[in-house]
């Protein structure tokens, strides 16, 4: 009882601090705000942001290319991901957005002729997907379409071919009992380690629709199901999970580090693909987050099982949330939260990686600002939704901070300490893919909105790396498919049977010669279902019941939720696969862990090796242990 009273007092104190900080920031913003940005200044700021992009892009091309990233203080380059011109790939659609046809064309042509992924490198599945795969797909969709105004006449789908090759090299990462992928994979040999990874649905889904091969969309969707199936009774997910046992190894639930883009991609996958299953999961996850994590206007981290607060910290990755709320149509709380988050920027000139809401100070060990775009991204979305000039004023502050605090001789530097504004010799590729892109879009929206995103031929969804994915008919129109499997079903491939609730449910029939699910014959299916689709009720189709750990009881859920006893669900064609004896290389001591969104920590390799054997006479790939 004493402990409970102590917790109540501690929470009361924290909440009072939250309110006081918010009120003080509001007073500060209202009392000493500078003169508002007028249309003429907005145009000047837009042009200044364009110059910022080229200062960094030219610095990379002149001093670092074809290495991955730029060291802007020493004007040198470094390989940080895979050694394949990462910053150039990440910058492609920003070049197109700025209307730089010459640089966009020459960059696409160089990548098409010189880039290859047959390299002995172990890379992050998450980072490689959002930065490289997403960059290639976005640039392909722009370069191949006359409607974008940036079509390259000589372009012959080179980037799409590279994207498909890269994604196939990452497929071994999904060979886990849960369907949740390893955090990293070796591009040549398929060796996997256990660093964070996970948000893949947009890039893999777009690739499936462009190549007519559903395998990519299926494995990515299966990973989402594997995570959501293991949610707590509060409909919360943790930060890190063991991809073999499905046990959560870090049960802190939040909207920031390691979880952020899990929420983001649920809503965006529904908008882009029209798949209602993603919408259902998002609604459940969002409602739970707003109930358990939202302490207006801030967000905290709680234990996913009990809901008890474990971490009263604002971390910089949370700043994407107001922008996501705008997409979801929940604008009022987005405005309040953005005001609170921006007050931290105003206080330091940048947002630190962590700001402690109990001590009102920078969290120890989290003083850096690595040029993150999330707060700028939310500012763009809120201005687009409200046209409130305060967001242009915020944009002006962002530009001033970057110009005076982060600008280096050859680009823009990480800030290692937001209190001292100490610079570090590194520039992430996402500075050009996202940070500058959202800033430019913000001011262009205030001037004339004459850009590919706001006045182009399509509506666009931004990936979590800021890459442009258009809602074209090829990508977004609903196909005849089994939505609860993510697999495509051709005409006459289904038959209807009467279920107990008198609801017509399709059952898929496959035979040995079926080619409607073009997996390689030897694709590993450990933990996957093959053969006939089991009959599912409407509730089961849209996520009301998934696999739950046997020890977990959902007694607090009022509506009945029948349980499917299978583990991960992916429909594959009939095939014969040799089962590996007792998962060689993995013992009870191995802890293959992944983060939900890929923004978390990494752990050591388990030692398991999956070798990718490529026959010179046969295009089929065989994965062997």
Automatic annotation (TrEMBL):
Residues 575-625 are annotated as: Disordered. InterPro entries: 6hp_glycosidase-like_sf, EDEM1/2/3, Glyco_hydro_47, Seven-hairpin_glycosidases. Its EC number is 3.2.1.-. Residues 1-24 form the signal peptide. It is found in: Endoplasmic reticulum; Membrane. It comes from the Eukaryota. It is a single-pass type II membrane protein. Its main location: endoplasmic reticulum. Keywords: Endoplasmic reticulum, Glycoprotein, Glycosidase, Hydrolase, Signal. Pfam families: Glyco_hydro_47 (PF01532). Belongs to the glycosyl hydrolase 47 family. This is alpha-1,2-Mannosidase. It comes from Brassica napus (Rape).
